[in-house]
Amino acid sequence: MPEGDTVWRAANDLRAALAEKVLTTCDVRVPRYATVDLSGHRVDSVASRGKHLLIRVGEASIHTHLKMEGQWQIYRPGERWRRPAHQARIILATEDSVAVGFSLGVTEILELGQEQEAVGHLGPDLLGTDWDSSVAARNLRAADSVPIGIALLDQRVMAGLGNVYRNEICFLRGIHPKTPTHRAGNLDAIVDLSFRTINVNKSRRIRVTTGDTRPGRQTWVYGRRGKPCRRCGTRIREDTLGPDQLTERNIFFCPACQPFTPG
After folding, report:
1. pLDDT tens, position by position, 78-100
2. Of the residues 20, 51, 69, 108, which is catalytic?
3. Going by C-beta distance under 8 Å and a sequence separation of 6 or more, which residues neighbour residue 26?
4. Is 227 a catalytic residue?
5. CA torsion sign, 186 to 190 to 193 to 199?
6. Choice among 3, 108, 168, 178 that is catalytic
7. Is 178 a catalytic residue?
8. Cβ–Cβ contacts within 10 Å for residue 18, how many?
9. What is the pTM of this model?
10. Domains defined for the chain, CATH in brackets
């Protein structure tokens, strides 16, 4: 699933293509909103909120979420799309740009006053102007016996982290992802590391947590099952973790550097 930095960059690209310009095309290919046509109206702003995108047009807000496969792409008028047309969920065009949302997990047209219904549940945005580390740390403490690897993905705690970051942050703090949050050590330090790690990557197309941008060297544990730990040489292990089977994601950890601490 795309993480908050991916969505933040998508918002920047959409802002450059659409903001303060009049829509010449608004084609929503979702049955519930198929009759909505915002063409002729100006795009007032584009904002990311955690993993959510909000494109405000007059009294409407186009709310999208990439989920697992979604992507926004920007084209010149007449340029051939790089993904199949049947995957397009929404097309927004101006005189000089065409923005296409492909395979979006959520595509809905809200009234501006309904935005809070879509994103009001989110915790402080790690890449937003509302970031508040003290609130995020308080939210994390409230997770209590929930495994830290689940709490870090809970967007109500702090918005923006995905599976890559939760694995890397747990490694960097020497915590097994299944450790209960109240046994995970300095939670303020975990919040601070989360903020610093995602912010240093927000302008990169390739996510790097090791400081080494060379191919195959960008992560400590994520995607490295069976390979030697970059610190101690122990083989990286893989497991799954989530609040239920539908939301389980792979976890990667070094059993030597990240010993499990039970509740």
Report:
1. 999 999 999 999 999 999 999 99
2. 51
3. 36, 37, 38, 39, 57, 90, 91, 92
4. no
5. negative
6. 3
7. no
8. 24
9. 0.93
10. 4-119 (3.20.190.10), 133-253 (1.10.8.50)
